[in-house]
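Supplementary material to the annual report.
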Amino acid sequence: MDLVLFLTFAIVAVGCAVNLVLQRHPISAAISLIGVMASLAVLYLLLGAEFIAAAQVIVYAGAIMVLFVFVIMLLNAEAERKTGRSLVARYIGIPSLVLFLSLLGVLIHALYPSAERASFGGFTGGTPQNVGRLLFTRYLLPFEATSALILIAIVGAVWLARKEAGE
Amino acid sequence: MILLNLCLALPAAAFLLLLLVPRSRPGWSRWSALAASLVIFAVSLALLAEFDGSNGGFQLETNIPWISAPSIRYHVGVDGMSLWLVLLTTFLTPVAVLISWRHIAARVKEFYAFLLLLELGLIGVFVALDLFLFYVFWEVSLVPMYFLIGIWGHERRIYAAVKFFLYTMAGSVLMLAAMIYLYNLAGTFDYGLLMADLVSGRMQLGARQESLLFLAFFVAFAIKVPLVPFHTWLPDAHVEAPTAGSVILASVMLKMGCYGLIRFCLPLFPTASRGNAPWIVLLAIVGIIYGALVAMVQPNMKKLVAYSSVSHLGFVVLGVFSFTQLGLDGAVYQMLNHGISTGALFMLVGYMYERRHSLEISAYGGVATPAPMLASVFMITSLASLGLPSLNNFVGEFLVLQGAAQANFTWAVFAAIGVILSACYLLWLYQRTFLGEASDEVKSHMFDLVPREWAATLPMIVLMVWMGVAAQTFLPSIGAANARILDRMQQGVVMDVKNTMPARGTEVARAR
Amino acid sequence: MTGVPLSWFLILSAVLFSLGVAGFLIRRSVLTVFMSIELMLNAVNLSFVAFSYQLKQVNGHLFTFFVMVVAAAEAALGLAIILAVFRNRGTLQVDEVNSMKN
Amino acid sequence: MLHLWLIPAFPLAGFLANGLVGRRASKAAVNLIAIGSVVLSLLWVLKTLAALGPLEHTHIERYFTWFQSGDLRVGFDLAVDRLTAVMLLVVTSVGLLIHIYAIGYMSHEGGYYRFFAYFNLFMFFMLLLVMAANFLLMFVGWEGVGLCSYLLIGFYFLRHSATTAGNKAFIVNRIGDYGFTLAVFLIFLGFGSLDFETVFAAAAGRPVETSAGALTLIGLLLLAGAAGKSAQIPLYVWLPDAMEGPTPVSALIHAATMVTAGVYMIARCAPLYTRAPLALDVVALVGLATAVLAAIIGLAQTDIKKVFAYSTVSQLGYMFLGLGSGAYSAGIFHLVTHAFFKALLFLGAGSVIHALSGEQDLRRMGGLRKHTPVTFVTILCAAVAIAGVPPFSGFHSKDAILLAAHHHAPWMYWAGVATAGLTAFYVFRAVFLAFFGTYRGPHHPHESPAVMTLPLAALALLSLAGGYFNVPRWLEPMFPPAEGAHDALLVYISVAAAAAGISLAWLMYVARPGLADRLAGRLGWLYRLVYNKFFVDEIYDRALVRPCVEGSSAVLWRGVDAGLIDGAVNQVGMKARDAGSVLRLIQSGSIRSYAAWVLWGSVLALAALVLSRGAR
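Predicted assembly:
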């Protein structure tokens, strides 16, 4: 059951990701990305991360991606053109990528030769209570720092995106 | 104790505060920079009250951990030498603010912000008692100066700024490497602990090891001093820098190198210092004479003063490496003197530039007619700089030369030639700029000192006389601090003798 | 034999990450490149959560949470920058925004 | 405490007052401050000396420590002994007279307050010089008077020649001071102190050096300093040029007081010189050579002030001869009388120049006897005094020196006598050219005002009678009395030489006016050599100054500094840039290629990780 669930959503995620990479038009890419995120949310649930799964849907799939789509619409972005080519990206990047993935695979196999198996309900610590308790005790300072970060980001974004006085 | 930390905290706070001042109100930036620098000066003056001049050790210390691994501590304190250098810095910063009042018209806020950041770095260098902290401040002081030259400088400012930066970096990288090496040996960056380890013999350096470490530190400081032949960044930097930049650069930044020599090279590596002294002294003497001769033929006023700095700082290095009480006292005093008199020279040249928009000597002549007060002040400053007794430089130069004579009379014979030459280039400069008939351009452009300029100039003049006549205000505490360093040098010799006995382990690593 | 080997999650994470990198390398639209970055962040989040499961600790979730927050801030700023760039340069093509060159 | 410090403090206060507010003050106020401060100083000197009485012991007052380092302590200490007393009286009295004279002389000049401020400053430093109780404080006065000399020579700062002369004076003095400072270093090394008291007491315990030793070296280096300040060979060249300054300056600084500082200093260091006979011999030789050379040059000068300037050099040489012969008191005696008559000569010359609206060339004077009678009479007094005509002041002091020289080495006596003849000749040549014959210039000569002639008269009195201040006897406790019997014959010979000089001058310039020119024409190259001062200035210029300047410019600056060092540095920079331009290809500006590089880097890192695990 868990395995089926995992495989289903893993395949959906990878498929969406592949689509994201292959699509020319930003809007298709954005929709694929939403797919990836949604399926990841399911996988989070599988791993017992209730709060994160919810946050994934609300923050990522909801807020951030809406922002993306909104900008795409605002700029009336078209399908990308074939401008410029990066030889480096092609001849170093792609082989590196292959190497990278295989090395990661090797590492994961070397490090987790017979890892334990994850099943639904195997870990139930990721409740909002637990996360919240930790967030407001041990991680209070980083939490407050992130709030400042977001504030700065908001101010920065507003400042960057405002119309210049002369325009 | 709190005061010393305030001396560091206030410039930092002022720097941040200035960033908040609206850009559209340059006047606010000026006034707030002036107010801040004056407050910092007042606070640093209060240091004097808490400082015990008869004690040669470090005082007003703060020592708290900063980074646990590697063990880096926020350890600051002053002794009789660094105290005066801190005061020199805090004294000159308001002066620098005043002389930039009109000179800096673009990006005013950023200029003053950098100036205060620079003050922070400079004070930090003089009070840091942790090698790593010292290095941090050393670099902190580098960056604002780079921008001061690069943004507000004259035509070739980029070249000069990059040259300045690269030269200094080249040296300080070596220094950092040596510091890390020391850390690996001793397990600490703390100056006091390092000294204790060296003195007690817990940590012993092999001759070759010590020599290399000494050289790494020495090159960093020699570039900063600057000692011939590492000096060619200085004339370019000075010529291109705005007036305030030149003043701070000459008066305080060059002292970082001298300070480093006395604080680190001598006591940490006494044997290597003695071993290398002959050729360093040779370079110092060459610098004294060479700098003076080259200054004599400069067609550009700032270059002239810059080369004169090379000559004057040769005296400092000579005094340091004479390893005598007189030489060291003279060297430290000469550091302060040079800060005042050469700083004032740069300031006055800056005034002239503001009026006539030229640094070429040939553009002047007869300035004494339209600007008699400027001429008088320039005269006094030149006299101070050429070492007229009863003005400040004389005491320092005399002590250095007397100390050098104690170490080796031949050194004094050659070094004293610099005293003759300094009269040549300064009086010749004065004659060509201030005396004679004034041309029409000079008459129409030059005017006498305005109140704001007086406010910056008068304290310098008063100090020149004061330091020349009442040298005892300063010398006892300097002497007490130097006596400690000389004691350490003596111990180094004693340990040297021990080292010739059956060899022990040269490296004692100690985990901390 | 229920459950999924944890290493599979890691493999999935690695694959998604690589796909993000591939998108970064291949795509020319700033927006898509940006989305690829988000994809990479998500991939990393997955491994965080997986490790958290393995260690039976909730810390990984918190890291994920912080990554999300940072991602949100990043998205806001990044998109604002994209807006500004688009207004100034009139293009969304990565290769045409190269005034840092030379 | 007698508050000795007040003596120099009065002029210092005068300097500060005039220097700070003199520009806005009236001339009367400036005068009051300037003259008043010197008067107060003189009064305080008199009061002090009266209080001190016979001065059997040196009276020292210590005020504060100037600086201290290690075992070197330099204090602000003033002292008065018999030698200082003499100097104090001369400096303040002659100084006062010249100050008063300057009121008249400078009345039409710009920068009036500036002049008197400098003058007072000079008095301060000069008094400090003679009252200092240690070498370094003396050096303060020493350099200070040099500074005032520089400022006053360049007083007419619009004139290039004046400012150049000022620079020359300062720099040549600096060369001398180089020797002085080295001597001070050696003294501290040798005696561990710089206080006169300590050093001289220690020196007294040392044996007389028969071969060159530390004391000899100290003596020679001090002589270098003295030669700079007192214009002796080879450093005399600045003094004739110094005549660019206003005439009261020439009188006060370059005749009566400052230039005699070297003489004073050597006399002060007599305890050292007595134990270094070799150095003392050099002093005598230098003095004699200077006396002869300057007298010869003085023969052919046409500028009245230049004549007197070379005369000063020559007379200072005399003083050195006296010192070098071991007759310190004779040297000081001559210093005193010389202060009177040379100040008078200069002031008289100034009066003449004033009368002729600035004319200084003897060839455009003549017949002034009728126009400026007071000046004529007073100058005549000075001339007979300097020529050594008995019983006037110069006769007594010169006589003392020549007798000592004879005792020291007879040939020095003969050279000295010849110089005395030359002296008489050139002084009277100047007097005759200026005051006799017919007037050859375009101006309308007029006598100077009383404020100028009164000091002239006072100095004339001193010149005539000054020989009866028995300075040598007063100084006897300090300096051993000059040995040698008073040989009447030697006195007659020197008087005869003076008489011969005067008569020859009379013959050539009054009786047969054309004779001098014919003689000059006959002696062609010799005359030109003398007229051009043996081309010493030119030789110094070619041999020292120009190589120094041009070498610095071409070799050191453009060659070593810009070429070698900066060249190397820039080469390093260029190479780094070249390397950078290769590496720059990586920095394509394309984000995607950057990403590829980042990826490549992480692949490497991962590979390293995998391999290292494999290795383990």
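The radius of gyration of chain A is 20 Å.
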